[in-house]
């Protein structure tokens, strides 16, 4: 039996960083984890509810980073939301007839901040201050989370799975990556026996710790059952995808 490990956790401390950056007393550590879970669920639900059904590939969340620090006896909580194909909360230039859009974006951002404040644990810390930052992904097709969402959308629209996998690989080439691996598992095409299908383009050295590997694992609900999607991306560690 093969021993598999998450490639992100395998590279922590080398070229991967934690998504939650903070220190806490041992007795409050569980409360801190639960608070992070509530914050992430709150943000994902808020953005999913405002995503248009006609545009499922807009406003996709790739990562939510939570940083907690203390400055002048004030406990600062910084929430950084990395998004691809962002339209919500976007600061548009002032043009004639665009004032209503600017007010709507400001109102949506204020509602998001209020919802995140409700998710904070009032018993964990006092004198807390919240800061929410929206960061736009510079090259969205180089992120495995966005590619996984795209593949799930193509499968839901009943596009043949091999064609959908090749489409995802072709789009990933726009990001100037070194390799990509796409895997689908489950009752593919409604077959009675589950199987695993995989496509590889380029190099994906999973055993090399120095290699910059991005990984995403998700599920998609189909009419005949659940399909599992996994995507590995081997990128240049010196290249920055986020701006």
Structure description:
It comes from Monsonia vanderietiae. With 243 residues, the protein is α/β, with parallel strands linked by helices. It has 2 domains: 11-136, GMP Synthetase, Chain A, domain 3, CATH 3.30.300; 139-235, Ribosomal protein S3 C-terminal domain (2-Layer Sandwich). The protein has 5 helices and 8 strands, in the order αβαββαβααββββ. It has helices at 7-10, 29-49, 99-119, 144-156, 161-172, and strands at 20-21, 60-71, 74-84, 128-136, 179-186, 195-202, 212-222, 225-235. Strands 1-2-3-4 form a 4-stranded mixed beta sheet. A 4-stranded antiparallel beta sheet has the order 6-5-8-7, with helices on one face. A hairpin with a 2-residue loop joins β2 (60-71) and β3 (74-84). α2 runs antiparallel to α3 and α4 runs antiparallel to α5.
List keywords for this structure.
4-stranded antiparallel beta sheet; alpha/beta; 2 domains; 243 residues; GMP Synthetase, Chain A, domain 3; 4-stranded mixed beta sheet; disordered C terminus; single chain
Summarize the structure.
By secondary structure, this protein is an alpha/beta fold.
Total separate domains: 2
- Gyration radius (Cα, Å) is 20 Å
Structural class based on helices, strands and sheet pairing:
alpha/beta
Which superfamily, in CATH terms, is the homologous superfamily of the largest domain?
A: K homology (KH) domain
Q: Which CATH class of the largest domain applies here?
A: Alpha Beta
Distance between the termini: 41 Å
Strand content: 25-35%
- Say how many strands there are: 8
**Quaternary structure state of the chains depicted:** single chain
**Would you identify the regions where 5 or more consecutive residues have pLDDT less than 50?**
239-243
Annotation field: number of helices: 5
CATH topology of the largest domain: GMP Synthetase, Chain A, domain 3
Shape from CA axes? globular
Across the major sheet, the strand order is 1-2-3-4
Mean pLDDT: 86
Q: List SSEs in N-to-C order.
A: HEHEEHEHHEEEE
Protein name: Small ribosomal subunit protein uS3c
Keywords: Chloroplast, Plastid, Ribonucleoprotein, Ribosomal protein
Pfam family, one: Ribosomal_S3_C
GO molecular function: RNA binding; structural constituent of ribosome
């Amino acid at each position: 039996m093969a021993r598999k490990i998450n490639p992100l956790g395998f590279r922590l401390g080398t070229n991967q960083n934690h998504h939650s950056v903070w220190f806490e007393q041992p007795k409050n550590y569980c409360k801190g984890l639960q608070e992070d879970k509530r914050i992430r669920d709150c943000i994902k639900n808020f953005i999913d509810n405002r995503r248009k059904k006609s545009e499922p590939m807009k406003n996709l969340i790739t990562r939510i980073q939570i940083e907690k620090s203390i400055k002048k006896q004030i406990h600062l909580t910084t929430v950084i939301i990395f998004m691809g194909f962002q339209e919500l909360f976007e600061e548009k230039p002032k043009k004639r007839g665009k004032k209503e859009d600017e007010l709507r974006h400001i109102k949506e951002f204020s509602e998001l901040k209020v919802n995140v404040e409700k998710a904070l644990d009032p018993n964990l810390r006092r004198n807390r201050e919240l800061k929410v930052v929206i960061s736009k992904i510079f090259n969205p097709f180089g992120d495995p989370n966005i590619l996984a969402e795209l593949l799930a959308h193509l499968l839901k629209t009943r596009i043949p799975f091999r064609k959908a996998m090749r489409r995802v690989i072709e789009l990933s080439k726009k990001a100037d990556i070194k390799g990509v691996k796409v895997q689908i598992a489950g009752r593919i095409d409604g077959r009675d026996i589950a199987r695993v299908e995989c496509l590889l383009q380029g190099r994906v050295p999973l055993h090399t710790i120095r290699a910059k590997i991005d990984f995403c694992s998700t599920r998609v609900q189909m009419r005949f059952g659940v399909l599992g999607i996994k995507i590995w991306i081997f990128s240049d560690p010196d290249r920055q995808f986020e701006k």
